[in-house]
Design brief:
Distance between the termini: 51 Å
Structural class: mainly alpha
Low-confidence stretches: none
Strand content: under 5%
Largest sheet: none
Number of helices: 9
Length: 164
């Protein structure tokens, strides 16, 4: 990683080679978080959307190999897709992967709930209502304040979808 970081992250950086290096580093040390941290926080946060997308797809690919450990980087990728690339379908794809692929109990609910809020941003109110209703019915929400907040959000989505 230190060798890789020694190269300037400027416009001449070959992202295909960069991804190959990051992939090789993760193959050598699959438990390391640093390659994906760098991918998400350094190499994906560039002004070139094409390069950012390459890096986000790399993060998604690597997330699928170890979802319970690598979910934070995909959550960051979802936020970048939403706020930097303004690509809500891509953000939703990443958020849905977190909810569907992770099984660890320490994955926070905010990460599992991202898809609901992205669906709302997409004006997919019925889909957001169904997901949120299912989440509330599942019993996974144990915090009473969070459950109350989500029930209010569900009521709001119900009202908005009726007036749509």
């Amino acid at each position: 990683m230190l060798y890789l970081q020694a190269f300037d992250a400027g416009p001449k950086l070959d992202y295909s080679r960069l991804i190959a290096w990051l992939r090789a580093i993760l193959a050598l040390d699959p438990r390391s978080q640093y390659p994906l941290f760098s991918a998400a926080r350094v190499y994906a946060e560039v002004s070139d959307p094409a390069r950012a997308r390459l890096m986000l797809e790399f993060i998604h690919e690597q997330f699928l190999l170890d979802p319970n450990r690598r979910w934070p980087w995909l959550a960051h990728a979802a936020l970048l897709a939403k706020h930097r690339l303004h690509d809500l379908p891509l953000a939703r794809r990443y958020a849905a992967a977190i909810d569907r692929e992770t099984t660890a109990r320490d994955v926070p609910l905010w990460a599992r709930q991202m898809e609901v809020f992205i669906l709302e941003d997409m004006n997919e109110l019925e889909a957001a209502r169904i997901l949120l209703g299912g989440l509330l019915e599942s019993g996974r929400i144990r915090d009473p304040d969070e459950a109350r907040f989500l029930r209010k959000k569900l009521e709001e989505l119900d009202r908005r979808s009726r007036t749509k």
